[in-house]
Design brief:
Layout lengths: L4 E7 L1 H4 L6 H12 L3 E8 L3 H14 L2 E5 L10 H9 L3 E3 L1 H14 L12 E3 L3 E3 L8 E6 L2 E6 L3 H20 L4 E9 L4 H7 L1 H6 L4 E6 L4 E9 L2 H19 L3 E4 L4 H12 L3 E5 L5 H7 L8 E6 L3 H6 L5 H7 L4 H14 L4 E7 L13 E8 L4 E7 L4 H20 L1
Parallel strand pairs: 1-2, 1-3, 3-8, 13-14, 13-15
Antiparallel strand pairs: 4-5, 6-7, 7-8, 9-11, 9-12, 10-11, 15-16, 16-17
Helix pairs in contact: 2-6, 3-4, 10-15
Family: Belongs to the CinA family.
Protein name: Putative competence-damage inducible protein
């Protein structure tokens, strides 16, 4: 089967209420695109039998492969099976291996199993059952007419395991092609989406195989390269050739690929150069250091950080002179400069980085929300201070500040 039209349906009222975000659909779409399957629709429907059935009817009419996440749990509002049964008329049976697993779990936890937990072992008689290695409810692949329905738990780590182990290999077989499809995501920082597309315009216009697709990301910009070939080796050669063409144009902004984060790239550069870093954080409140120490191996490069949100902490711990603060304020280049120099000295770090500014929502010291100063201080005495005017709510400004700090550090080290 070629040109598969895929659709992702998320079931759960909590998604409609905004209590949780539907990150599953985004993740699944990325993985399907990587094997050459286009997702034509995303849908979210609440826990209402009639509305779920109506959505399933619509999905069945317009899509070849429908992936449903959620609604497979033990409670009364888990209605995915019931809605599909009304559509298909398929028999639902109890899957004995799943039931044994559920009973064993409750016995091990020494908890009485309530009768409604049996619901999680209910499957369609004609389904290909997928073992849930990290949870209770099994997944299912169900042929229905000329359509394929795939039912997965809504819990992200359960869903991802089944997608990787069972669904993606199954769909690659369903494509019925001997062609190998490989993708790589190139990640960039310090360049906007429109500028990146402009710089790559001639490559994009000439693209055939691999294809080039610029994508906006939460942190920076990415470009996905996707190649088709008869073998893995040929596909990777095609990608490598196009990757070099891309980097010849915008390589100065490139920091990694696929799941590589900017902070991980910074950590690698620090390790390679045998340098250490310490941070003095006011408005970011420890967010910069938190991201760094979340990466294994951070202890080799990270001296630590000082959260100096209060002015007295800047004065008494970081030793920022009170007369400097009186003259220039805490939201200033002089204050940021001393913060970075002193945290470097206090923690014996090769590099000190400081963040001070106004996260909002109101102004401070005559500066509007979004005013930020970042200083990088090297042990040699060399300094760089940048002023920014970020926009957004309080959390957005803080995140933008941290991202910019990593960008400055990356550019310094590379």
């Amino acid at each position: 089967m070629t040109n598969i039209r895929a659709e992702i349906v998320a079931v759960g009222t909590e998604l409609l209420l905004g209590q949780i975000a539907d990150t599953n659909a985004q993740w699944i779409s990325q993985r399907l695109a990587a094997i050459g399957i286009n997702v034509h629709h995303h849908a979210v429907v609440g826990d209402n039998l009639q509305r779920v059935e109506e959505q399933f009817k619509l999905s069945n009419e317009r899509s070849d492969v429908i992936i449903v996440t959620g609604g497979l749990g033990p409670t009364e509002d888990d209605l995915t099976r019931e809605a599909f049964q009304k559509l298909s008329g398929m028999e639902i049976v109890e899957h004995e291996p799943s039931m044994k697993k559920i009973k064993a779990y409750f016995a091990k936890q020494k908890i009485d199993m309530t009768p409604n937990n049996r619901k999680q072992a209910r499957v369609f008689a004609d389904a290909d059952i997928l073992d849930n290695q990290t949870g209770m409810a099994p997944g299912m692949i169900v042929p229905y007419g000329d359509k394929t329905w795939i039912f997965l738990p809504g819990v992200p780590h359960e869903m991802k395991r089944m997608m990787a182990n069972d669904i993606l290999p199954y769909l690659q077989r369903l494509l019925g092609e001997d062609t190998i499809i490989k993708s790589v995501m190139l990640r960039f920082i310090g360049i906007g989406e429109s500028r990146l597309e402009h710089e790559l315009q001639d490559l994009i216009q000439q693209q055939t195989n691999p294809t080039i697709a610029p994508l906006a990301q939460n942190e920076g910009i990415a470009t996905r390269l996707t190649a088709k070939a008869a073998t893995d080796e040929e596909a990777l050669k095609l990608i490598e050739r196009t990757k070099q063409d891309v980097l010849d144009k915008v390589g100065e902004h490139y920091y990694g690929e696929d799941e590589q984060t900017l902070q991980a790239s910074v950590l690698e550069l620090l390790k390679d150069q045998g340098k250490s870093v310490a941070a003095a954080e006011s408005l970011t409140g420890g967010m910069f250091i938190d991201r760094l120490i979340a990466i294994p191996g951070a202890s080799h490069v990270c001296r630590g950080g000082i959260v100096c949100y209060d002015t007295k902490v800047k004065e008494n711990v970081l030793r920022v002179p009170s007369d400097l603060i009186s003259q220039y304020g805490t939201v200033s280049e002089p204050c940021a400069s001393v913060m970075a120099a002193n945290v470097s000295s206090l923690m014996d770090a090769d590099i000190g980085i400081s963040f001070t500014g106004v996260a909002g929502p109101g102004s401070s010291e005559g500066h509007p929300a979004g005013t930020v100063f970042i200083t990088i201080h090297e042990k040699s005495g060399k300094q760089q201070t940048e002023k920014y005017n970020f926009y957004g709510d309080r959390q957005t400004i803080r995140k933008q500040t941290v991202l910019k700090g990593y960008e400055l550090l990356f550019n310094l080290l590379k």
